[in-house]
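Minutes, structural biology subgroup

Action item carried over from last meeting: produce the structure token record for Sn-glycerol 3-phosphate transport system permease protein (Azospirillum picis). EB confirmed the sequence was re-checked against the source entry. Recorded below for completeness.
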Amino acid sequence: MPDRRLGSQLAPHVHGWLLLLPAVALLAAFTYFPAVAALWSSLHSTPKGARPARFVGLDQYAAMVDDPVFWQSLWNNVLFALGTVPLSVAIALLMALWVNGRIRGRTALRMAYFTPTMLPMIAVANIWLFFYTPGYGLIDQVLGLFGLPDTNWLGSPATALPALMVVTVWKEAGFFMIFYLAALQAMPPSLREAAMLEGAGRWCIFRRVTLPLLMPTTLFVLVNAVINAFRTVDLVVVMTRGGPDNATALLLYHIYEVGFRYWDTGYAAALTTVLVVILVVLAIGQFVYLDRKVHYR
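Output recorded by EB:
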């Protein structure tokens, strides 16, 4: 009798773990194992020909400290994140507020905002390459109407990275808008109506009611936006290849160059480990900083 009772108590737990097993197996095989393998490889030299990898300890990380391209790509990535994350989130919120209202052509406007998200990044990069073409591109053609000179947007260190930021914001804002729009539509209308009965204006309702209720969505969007900013590589490969003079070399592109162009897998693994650590620290920092605002403590 006790064995039968114990079996009936364990059955739901076993059933639950069996349902989770495929997802856990895929997560372990394609996330945790590669991360551990990258950490292990970063402590070993790159195998070449008949010479196997040998343990070198922290030599790869010591070489990273003396690598000026690493520091340049890391600084570029910080600037890239600071330039794209706040702007993407702010524009996404504004677009969601706009298309959530009762306006004519709301469905078409939502589709227009979301269309860049559906395009492959390679296609987006080629579209914007045409826009940025000196003299013949759309941007210079428009600026030429006002008598402004042609600009080599992707060929100048001063404008190349901001040009990539514009493309990223253009593509990602519509994606983040969907999450904000879903959160806005899930809000009870009674909260807004109660605030209006108390005499609150639009700005007060947005600041005191709408924005606090959007904080869980904002946290989710921020974490994803930061991760996207540090894993951008295809845009750089197609549009600039890290140039000019490493002005647009982001950290993941530097890893790609080291690992697949120079075939230094040990050093590339060390760079990957540092990138993963940076993303984990940033994600934990965002959760800790926004936790009270999300849960109203």
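Discussion: Residues 2-42 form the longest helix (41 residues).
Next step: EB to file the record with the rest of the batch.
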